[in-house]
Amino acid sequence: IYLNTYADRAKNHTNPAAKDLLEVIERKQSNLCISVDVTSSKDFLNIIDTVGPYVSLIKANFEPSLIPRLQDLSIKHDFLIFEDRKFADIGTLSTFQGNTVALQYSAGVHKIATCPGPSVIKGLATVGLPLGRGLLLLAEMSTAGALARGVYTEDAVRMARAARDFVVGFIAQHRMEGRDRGFFDFDPGVGLDTIGDGLGQQYRTPEQVILESGCDIIIVGRGIYGKVGNMDTGEVQRQAERYRNAGWDAYLQRLKCLR
Ligand code: UP6
Fold first, then answer.
1. Which entry of 19, 84, 185, 216 is annotated as an active-site residue?
2. What is the pTM assigned to this prediction?
């Protein structure tokens, strides 16, 4: 069976977080996830309040003290929260600067790379499943020369299949599974105006990501809020709407191809 639409997939999904997300995507007609990688809490909340109407998901690595505000905003604007706790990353910053170790993990170039195996998934599932959460595995990276490929990628897919109730998908550069689309493919490294950031990040357009590579969700950070510091809220809003439209148009085009 080809479960083409987000709405169809929502009906069939058994993980509550994945089901919720598919429903939000359909309701808001947005397959856009914003990645909010900024160090000031004020900018963080401002950006989220500005882009809220256009996104179905917020990806961030945030201080625990920000959670109540974030939850209020998620109710106000109807989006879900994807807490980004990976330890192998590109050189972006985050608001998680409570202590030095956390800062070293989450900001700058001195990233700690871990390869969580099945036991880590099991451990996380004991906490996450009762709360109705879902986990994403990093299967491929957007950066030039990334090591996450080949056997690593195949293992990630195998681990996901073995824990289907909890693992809901992948961070990847193309569709990892067949057409049944049980898993999500979230794609970072999306930009409409540039092809890279000069630090290894490589950007593709929403059309390349959704239509050509068959991913489900575009993750966009700096393409929307640009260089933080002198933020122009109107411009951030315009960019969010622009990426939302580009992502959704690509999805509608893909549906036509599948018929
Ligand atoms: N990210 C990537 N590539 C990956 C995995 N994750 O860029 O392979 C994350 C980055 C950042 C976001 O850590 O949070 O996606 C992309 O931000 P950008 O659009 O500003 O480049």
1. 84
2. 0.89
